[in-house]
Amino acid sequence: MKIVSIAISKKKGTRKTPVQEAFLTEDHGIQGDAHAGKWHRQISFLASESIETARSQGLDVTFGDFAENIAPTGIDWVQMPIGTQVRLGETALVEITQIGKECHKKCAIYYQAGDCIMPREGVFARVLSPGKICCGDAIEVVTNP
Questions:
Q1: How many CB atoms lie within 10 A of CB 107?
Q2: Is 7 exposed, middle or buried (0-12, 13-18, 19+ CB in 10 A)?
Q3: Among the four 38, 89, 108, 137, which has the fewest Cβ within 10 Å?
Q4: Alpha carbon of 99 to those of 23, 35, 124, 141, 145: distances in Å?
Q5: How many angstroms separate the CA atoms of 110 and 33, rounded?
Q6: What is the pTM of this model?
């Protein structure tokens, strides 16, 4: 289980730009990302396997295109119970707060990519402990309620 991609954006509802590293701020999210703030969806996850599946089905997509912050490999995120705590890298700790989301309208991502899998497969978390994360860092499930 590891981080394959990290991505951020300055504006909500748009594709994110991949970066090699980022800093997670406690009860805020990823520094410099539009989704950071005092709410329950500070960070978003989408399995790299889900992005690969979308690509194999003909969508012209890559990391960040679904507005996910972190694309990990080796974790079945949608089966993870709300409240599960996950360590990212050496010190960052997040807690799963939501699985999937309601889309009130088709966003820019849907029109650009042809589909948006975040409502079905996206997982959201809040930051419990800060830390720097990098592509390739390990991911560890710490608690599973």
A1: 17
A2: buried
A3: 38
A4: 23, 16, 6, 16, 15
A5: 20
A6: 0.90
CATH number belonging to domain 2-143: 2.40.33.20
- pLDDT band at residue 105 under the 50/70/90 scheme: low
Q: Give one DSSP letter per residue of 10-59, joined into a string.
A: SSTTSPPEEESEEEEETTTEETT-TT-SSSS-SEEE--HHHHHHHHHTT-
Give residue 109's pLDDT band: very low, low, confident or very high (50, 70, 90).
low
Give the residue, 29 or 113, on which the prediction is more confident: 29
Residue with tokens 């730009």: 17
pLDDT in tens, 31-41: 999 999 999 99
Q: What is the SS3 assignment for 82?
A: coil
Q: Is 4 within 8 Å of 135 (Cβ atoms)?
A: yes
